[in-house]
Write a structure and sequence with these properties.
Helices cover 24% and strands 31% of the residues. By secondary structure, it is of the alpha+beta class.
């Protein structure tokens, strides 16, 4: 795989075929098979809910960018890591260069809470990001001149934390902000929402510091559906209150329902200290078909969830700290 006239010499289907042949030749049933390109939605193929590959192409259908997003500790994680390694290998021209790229990107370093790295090798721009100690992973490659990473967000040093190093907490240290739901940090969700739902990352200092330290308000559109969130954070960057919504712009009521189901599945993955992911996901699944202007509510630990909807128009869920 190499660059010709500003693009790689492969179409998405040719890349998919190569990946499937490689996994078939090297392993026996261990890795998942990629679906054909004609099953793509908005330039993406979903191998599982936890694993997505997206392509950008030029007017001739040749690849200009490949991006991966996957979640660790799932059946798809090994497939994703293997295919990323294969992709790096076929784009390098010298032996051992692939290992060098993985080292430069510091890939799979799960001792760090959240970090990103990039490098340019053999005319390719490689990018890797990890969030929440490797729970979520993003990888992309494109031609060096285009610098493929395109998230709209503040400077990385304001987002990503330094490597996790346990330290002694002095007895006179800063007080813990009690306004938020303990442990409910939306960072990983926001990163996934940028890649999956087209929602640019957003965070700024609050205009009402008596209520919150930061606010995160953003929206995006994919396939005629608008996705949005509005989040208030305390000074520990834990959620005080939040709202997550999906609205049909030109999509059918059926498409909107399935979009809401996927979006709220992602919301259910926002962990917190007293949470119960399985109970929350079950509640979303059971409640969504009955969503109306009257709230359907559940309290799980320190968080209260209120689900609303207007069939064919919009669905949204509000999160607040339980009394």
């Amino acid at each position: 795989m190499y660059v010709v006239d500003g693009a790689y010499n492969f179409t998405p289907q040719e890349y998919i075929d190569l990946m499937n042949r490689t996994t078939k030749n090297q392993v026996d049933g261990e890795y998942l098979t990629l679906p054909n390109w004609d099953e793509a939605t908005a330039g993406s193929i979903w191998i599982a809910l936890s694993f997505r590959i997206a392509f950008e192409t030029n007017n001739d259908g040749k690849i200009t960018r490949i991006s991966y997003h996957w979640k660790s500790a799932t059946e798809a994680a090994n497939t994703a890591a293997f295919l990323v390694g294969v992709t790096i290998t076929i784009l390098t021209t010298s032996e051992g260069q692939g290992d060098n790229i993985i080292e430069q990107l510091d890939m799979f370093n799960f001792s760090k809470k959240s970090y990103e790295n990039n490098c340019d090798v053999d005319g390719n721009h490689f990018y890797y990001m990890s969030a929440n100690y490797g729970e979520h992973n993003w990888f992309s490659v494109d031609i060096s001149d285009s610098k493929g990473f395109t998230f709209t967000q503040p400077q990385p040093e304001k987002i990503f934390e330094a490597p996790y190093e346990p330290a002694e907490i002095p007895s006179s240290g800063p007080a813990i902000d009690e306004r938020g739901i303990d442990g409910m940090d939306p960072f990983a969700f926001q990163m996934a929402a940028t890649d999956t739902f087209g929602i640019p990352y957003a965070k700024k200092e609050s205009n009402n510091p008596d209520y919150s330290a930061y606010t995160c308000v953003s929206s995006g559109e994919v396939d005629g559906i608008s996705y949005d969130y509005s989040i208030s954070l305390d000074s520990d960057e834990e959620i005080i209150g939040a709202s997550f919504g999906v609205t049909a712009l030109s999509a059918s009521s059926t498409d909107l329902f399935y979009a809401a189901d996927l979006y709220f599945y992602s919301v259910s993955l926002i962990a917190y200290d007293t949470g119960d992911k399985e109970a929350l996901l079950s509640w979303f699944t059971e409640s969504l078909p009955n969503a109306s202007s009257e709230a359907i509510s559940i309290t799980l630990g320190d968080a209260k969830f209120d689900l609303y909807g207007m069939n064919g128009g919009t669905y949204w869920v509000d999160i607040s700290k339980a009394p």
